[in-house]
Amino acid sequence: MSLTFAMLREQNVARCEETRHELGVWTLTDWATALAGEVGEACNVIKKMRRSELPGPQHINGDPFVLYAQLQDEIGDVLTYLDLLSAAAGFSLESAVARKFNKVSERIGSARTLPVPETVTS
User: The pTM is what?
Assistant: First the structure.
């Protein structure tokens, strides 16, 4: 079985509300700030990955395989918080991604598009 955005949304919001707080307790600013923190953590891992490629003492930042696993974890955190942000805003990741993908395709002259869901989910 493949993971879908809908599956993530269902489990993500339920876990948040079971273990932390109701989704609406945090403002969009709160969710965006949490998301930015996770993006920063992913970028920090990428910085360490790049340093490990360079000659000199900066290679002490870690094993590339460990860093790759850390990056995977951080990207997972980013998507999790992005889903919670979009849930708090009242729309699905599917609709946000498809709408923007299609706008860019039109702007750059590509025939590639995604189906846009008609429902708004939270």
Answer: 0.88
Longest dimension (CA), the chain: 54
Strands (DSSP E) along the chain, which ranges? none
Residues 6/94, Cβ–Cβ less than 8 Å: yes
| 10-residue averages of pLDDT along the chain (122 residues) | 96 98 98 98 94 73 86 98 98 96 98 86 47
Rounded CA-CA distance 121/10 in Å is: 10
Q: What is the spatial distance between Cα 48 and Cα 19, in angstroms, rounded to a whole number?
A: 32
Contact 58, 97 (CB under 8 A): no
Report the run of H or E that residue 2 belongs to, with start and end: none
- With tokens 């094993």, the residue in question is 63
* Owner of token pair 């974890």: 73
